[in-house]
User: Fold this.
Amino acid sequence: MKALFFLLITFLFPPYVSAAYEVVQLYSQDELNNLIDANLHLQRVKADDCQLVEDIKAHAIKVHEPSYTYLWGDMLAWGVCVERDATLGMYYIKQSAKQGLLAAIEQLGRYYEKGTLVKKDKDCALIYYREAALQGFLKAKVNYVRLLNEGYGSPVDYMDAYRALYHSVIADKKLQQQAKQLLSVLAEKMPEHIIKKAKKENYDIAS
Assistant:
């Protein structure tokens, strides 16, 4: 009966129907990746009135797109537009990390550093930061050097960490200053010849 009523309304009042039932387009990969990098992905799902839940789930579980796997995991982890299941959410976040999504790898580092959803473990956090940092993810580079400065990791990490952050392209002035200060502290732990080597050998062209 409801379907018949909707068809009748559609036939008689098409402008009304299009206004009342606005179709929300699924996010492109670039758009979703930008939302994730800005940590706005969950806000966007809520802003779209949770209309894309099933599409997001399908892209995560059936298509196995890393960014959607991450989004689905974060939605489950925090109960955004779905019933909260933190364990299942972390599973999907880790799956997206295994698929190579650097934002997911870096976030796992932050979760382990802060003890968010998992047991606090800064040594584990360092491993995740290092993996994302050496693949060019700027946030991870900053966090990697910061934890090394705090005494975690090993001196064998210093040169790669220094080189990764030193050769980064950083548009944000505040972040530039933070990176400069972090590198200055790390340099105090390194022999001068290692610092010079790190500055000259730029194998990291990603920002």
